Amino acid sequence: MSVSLQFADMSLSAPLAKAIAKMGFTNPTAIQEKAIPIISKGTDTISLAETGSGKTAAYLIPLISHLLENKEKHALILAPTRELATQIGSVIKEFTLFAPEINFAIIIGGAPMFKQIKQLERKPRIIVATPGRLVDHMRRGSANFKQLSHLILDEADRMFDMGFAPQVNEVVRRIPVQRQTLLFSATFPKEIRELAGRVLRNPVEIEISKTQLPPKVISQRMIAVGAANKNDRTLDLINAATGSVIVFTRTKRRTDRLARYLEEYGVKVTRIHGDRSQGQRNKSIDGFKSGLYRVMVATDIAARGLDISDISDVINYDLPMTTEDYVHRIGRTGRAGQNGQALTLVAPEEVHDWTQIARKMGLPLPENASKSKSRPNGHIHQHAHRRTDRRDNQRNNPRNDQRKWR
To answer: Distances from the Cα of 76 to the Cαs of 25, 158, 166, 171, 326, in angstroms?
Structure first.
C-alpha cells in the first residue's frame, strides 16, 4: 500500500515550508502531488486540471522555492481575469509570509496605470497580469523581463475563449526564450495544443481525471421554472440556503436588475460584472468574503478565480454558454471538502440547452428531452434568452411554472 506524499516530505525552503504549515496544508492534492516534483526539476509542463483542484499552489510552491534559491530570477503569471489575478496574488502573499524578499505586483486592467508603473519600478520578483494590460506596459517600456526565468499561463483555455490569443502571443515574443514555461488549462483544444507546441520545450503532460476532483460533494439539481418567475424562485432559493450564495446571470444588465430586485426584498446583495471598476469589484468581493453581503450576483467573470470556502449554493439564473462554464460556475461551492449545492433554473424554452449540459455531466434528463441533440463545440444557442430578457422582472403566480412544463 502506497503512502501519500506530504508537503513535509518535499525539499522546500524553510520560509516556504513554514508558511505552508501555518496555512494548515499537510497533504497535497492530486495535481500538486504530480506537478510539484516535475516542475521543481525545471521541466516545462502542461497540466490539465479542473477548477478547485489546487493548481495555483501546484505551480506557486515550486516557483517560490526556486526564486528563494535564485535571488536574481523573476517570474510572470498570466491570468485571464482580474479576479483570478487578484486571487493568485492573495495566495502568493500567504506563501511568502516569511519571505518578504519575494515581492510581487498585480498588473490588471481597470486599475490606475501610474500606480502599476510605480510597482514595476520596484522590480517585483513575481508579476501577475492580465494579457491586455501587460501588453500596454510592455509597449510603453514600463515592464522589463530581462531576468525572467518562469512563464506560467494559468487557465490558458479561458484566455483564448476571451480573445486574448494575440496579446498572449505578443507577450511570448517579448520575453526571453530561455525560461521554464508552465501551462495550466481545464481543457486542451486545438488552439491550446498549438500554443503549447510554440512556447514549451519538451513538456511533460500531467492530467488529473475528473474522478479525482471534488465535484462529488456538490449536489446538482435542475429546477423547472416559468421564464417570468425566475426572480421569485431565486429569492425563494436564497432564503432556503444555509450560507453564502452566488447567482450567475448571462449579462451585465440582468445582473443589475436581479441585484436591485433582491435588494427590494431585504437581501444583502452585491454584484460583479465587466462594467464595474476594479475598485468596485474588489469592494464587492471583500464584502462578500467578510459576510457583509450574503449574496453575490455575477456574470461569468466570477466563475473562475474566486476562492471562498463557505459558499453553500450556486444558482444558475441563466444557463452558461458552455458545459465547461457550467463546471467552473458550480466549482465555486463544495470547496475545501465542504458540501455544496448547484441549482439551475430552466425555463421550458431552455430545456434543449439544459439537456446538452445534463448529458455531458451525467445528470438526469428532463422529460421529453430524449430527442434533444447537442450542438457543435459545446456551445448553447441563445434565441430563447432574447425572448426572456423582456420578461425577467415580471412576477406571476408560481403555479404557472408547473403548468408551462406540462
So the answer is: 25, 18, 17, 10, 29
Per DSSP (E only), the strands in 51-200 are 74-78, 104-107, 126-129, 148-153, 180-185
Residue 58 inside a domain? The answer is yes
Q: What range defines the domain where residue 326 resides?
A: 213-401
Whether pTM > 0.90 for this model: the answer is no
Q: Of 346, 382, 384, whose CA–CA distance to 366 is shortest?
A: 346
CB 94 within 8 A of CB 19: yes
Q: Are residues 229 and 185 in the same domain?
A: no
- Domain edge (last residue) among 209, 226, 248: 209
Q: What is the pLDDT of residues 92-116, one digit of tens each?
A: 999 999 999 999 999 999 889 999 9
The predicted pLDDT at position 382 comes to 41
Which residue(s) pair with 106 in the sheet?
128
Same domain for 348 and 239?
yes
Provide the pLDDT confidence category of residue 25 given band limits of 50, 70 and 90: confident
Q: Are residues 137 and 83 in the same domain?
A: yes
Interatomic CA distance for residues 283 and 398, integer angstroms: 35
- Would 1 be classed as within a structural domain? no
Instruction: List C-alpha distances in Å: 95 to 13, 43, 182, 280, 302.
Output: 11, 22, 19, 27, 23
User: Bridge partners of 343?
Assistant: 221, 315
Segment 378-400, tens digit of pLDDT? 444 443 343 334 334 333 344 34
Please indicate, yes or no, if residue 160 is contained in any of the structural domains: yes
Task: Single out the residue of 197, 216, 213 nearest to residue 205, CA to CA.
Answer: 197
Torsion of Cα atoms, 50 then 54 then 59 then 65, to 10°: -170
Percent of the chain whose pLDDT exceeds 70: 85
Residue 314 sits in a domain of what CATH number?
3.40.50.300
Please state, rounded to an integer, the average pLDDT across all residues of the chain: 85
DSSP SS3 for 224: strand
Q: Are residues 153 and 246 located together in one domain of the fold?
A: no
- pLDDT of 365: 86
What pLDDT is recorded for position 363?
87
